[in-house]
Amino acid sequence: MSHPERSCEDPTMPPALRVSGLAKSFVVHAHGDLALPVLHDVSLAVSPGECLALVGPSGAGKSTLLRSLYGNYRADAGSIRVRQDDTWTELVGAEPRTVLDVRHRTMGFVSQFLRVIPRVAAVDVVAEPLLRRGVDATEAHHRAEFLLGMLGIPARLWALPPATFSGGEQQRINIARSLIVDYPILLLDEPTASLDAANRDGVVELICQRRDAGAAVVGIFHDTGVRDAVATRIHEVLPPASPAGARHA
Amino acid sequence: MNTPTLSSPLLSARNITKRFGGRIACHDVNFDLWPGEVLGIVGESGSGKTTLLNCLAGRLTPDEGSVAYETASAGTVDVHRLSEARRRLLTRTEWGFVNQDAREGLRMGVSAGANIGERLMAVGARHYGEIRGSAADWLARVEIDADRLDDRPTTFSGGMRQRLQIARNLVSGPRLVFMDEPTGGLDVSVQARILDLLRGLVERLHLSAVLVTHDLGVARLLTHRLMVMQGGAVIEEGLTDQVLDDPQHAYTQMLVASILPV
Is the pLDDT of residue A84 over 90? Predict the structure, then answer.
């Protein structure tokens, strides 16, 4: 496995994201409170300008880890701290509005699939995070159109709701929406999964730009070419050690 | 959705309990609603969510507990200790209430324009031309043709009535809106239009809202935070996407698992 180390990495740079002792299991009540442990004692730290690639076999919990970092999954134990306003904000056990504030100002997430909003045009879906920050509507739309163009979405689609777009187009809308804001921390779940080579290269270029501009990036990249291009470090996610893989709580 | 700002709560509910006869409709509910926050209350029919909403909005008096509201200019008030006149003023000025059945929230015997204008007059507007102008402007914002201004809501479709009810509630610039199944009983295409409209208005006007719905899709689209109710009690609460994607309680897991895929 390649571990590309880049010279820009600065060990004295304080991390933007620090995780320690993170544990997460799912308890399925409909199946006799079946407990599925996924994450156990995960620790990692990511500094500005770094891109940490999560690697591991399917089912090891890479997506679960990423979603836990974003507060989409509720961690059972441990700590997820994010640097914001020069202090650490703890996300495990945080109030919803604290998590929303961190998502608004500090942490962006690109999921594999776009959650379509009925009737809202692609360009508005992309511009929305900027509008929420009080950016003027004309400026927000210009930037949205620029990103859509850069990601190869034909101009004739910009005014249409993405519900009928192809999987690859929807994914690029999703990427544009998350990259239109310069989040200090970016979480990427397979951002190039359903893209062809040309569009994949555009996304890789955007991610590298963000990383080099000082974003701390954590991502899952199955495509090794993409991973080699964007990652500065590898973090291995191991499948849960439980012998049966599951047990009853 | 806006991101709620971090200041002090707009609405605080403490130990809200309401019984009907010997039956507990809603038991010991506590929460704070923050400015700019949209809180969803979800659960099946009979779970107590509408009773809770009515207690919060001062339409029902809880048997125990209190609701504190931070007014725009007069400090914090205890909603259930206000005089009837002051509470009515509050509901016409700083609050809105969108009923599931638009007929309950509209005056069916007067024109669409009058339905909107009435709220403005309650907050002191007297200039007829300006009231009519605002009414026309709000009809446009809820996508109703201006030439329907003088028509009565009895001549409107269900979806148009609901949009008119929303306009009537928002014209006076409320800070807090209560919504009881605002898209319930409407066709899905009509529902999508209303959801899109509500989403845009809540965002642009920086409204705070408490929304009761049994539709988890509506909750995901419109709310920041969810409380899940079962048998009158809040059994789970948290960030909307977290509750829906990683439900903890058996009942919430069952609700989420019951959504039909399309």
Answer: yes
Give the ipTM: 0.88
pTM summary value: 0.90
For residues B18 and B55, give the distance between their C-alpha atoms in angstroms, rounded to a whole number.
Answer: 8
Q: Is A229 helix (H, G, I), strand (E, B) or coil?
A: helix
Choose the closest CB to A119 out of B37, B193, B241: B193
> What is the CA B65 to chain-centroid distance, rounded?
21
CB B133 within 8 A of CB B171: no
Say whether B196 and A119 touch across the interface (CB within 8 A): yes
Q: Which residues are bridge partners to A187 per DSSP?
A: A109, A218
**CA distance to partner chain B, nearest, from residue A9 (Å):** 33
Instruction: Give the separation between CA B217 and CA A68, rounded to whole angstroms.
Output: 22
Tell me: the pLDDT tens digits for B70-111? 999 889 999 999 999 999 989 988 999 999 999 999 999 999
Residue type, B50: T
CB contact under 8 A, B248 and A104: no
The answer to whether the CB of B159 falls within 8 A of the CB of B108 is no
Alpha carbon of A33: minimum distance to chain B alpha carbons (Å) = 9
Contact between residue B112 and residue B136 where contact means Cβ atoms under 8 Å apart = no
Q: Which residues contact A35 (CB under 8 A, 6 or more apart)?
A: A25, A26, A27, A28, A246, A247, A248, A249
Taking Cα atoms as reference points, which of A122, A124, A130 lies closest to residue A104?
Answer: A130
Give pLDDT tens digits for B117-138. 998 988 888 888 999 999 999 9
CB proximity list for B12: less than 8 A, separation 6 or greater: B31, B32, B33, B67, B68
Interface touch B3/A103, C-beta < 8 Å: yes
Residue type for position A62: K
